[in-house]
Write a structure and sequence with these properties.
This protein is mainly alpha-helical and 126 residues long. The protein has one domain: Up-down Bundle (Four Helix Bundle (Hemerythrin (Met), subunit A)). Helix content is 56%, strand content 0%. α1 runs antiparallel to α5 and α2 packs parallel to α3. The longest helix is centred in the middle third of the chain and has 23 residues. The radius of gyration is 14 Å and the shape is globular.
Length: 126
């Protein structure tokens, strides 16, 4: 039996998280690339939970929107994860901006927060 959508997205989220962790200390990798993988990890974690709950979602990269969908469907995201909404611009906008436009990302802090989000989501994916 092929894995369901929630498990596929959880696996993809873990891969993006691992990429961000592996790249964050590499001086040859700009912050926007690390930020992209961080944003993708969060997006896929949220979408895995939405899939588990059977909630339909559009193809969006807006993390706040995904968190609101979860809250609306009875699965509010703990407040500690709300700062991850700030990663949304890394999905598209920052991918094509100059380094001066993207600003810095505290990758170590963000990756720790993503790990905690994953630890919160994983037990809910059955």
């Amino acid at each position: 039996m092929p894995p369901d959508r929630a498990h596929v997205l959880l696996g993809k989220a873990k891969a993006d998280e691992a990429a961000a962790v592996a790249l964050m200390d590499n001086p040859a990798v700009p912050g926007d690339i690390v930020g992209f993988h961080c944003q993708q990890a969060v997006e896929k974690l949220l979408k895995s939970l939405l899939s588990q709950l059977g909630v339909h979602y559009a193809k969006v990269h807006n993390l706040r929107h995904l968190m609101e969908l979860l809250s609306h469907d009875g699965c509010p995201i703990p407040r500690e994860f709300e700062p991850l909404e700030e990663l949304t611009p890394f999905a598209v906008l920052h991918r094509y901006a100059s380094p001066e436009q993207t600003g810095e990302i505290d990758a170590k802090h963000v990756c720790k927060l993503i790990a905690h989000l994953r630890e919160w989501v994983e037990p809910q994916i059955v």
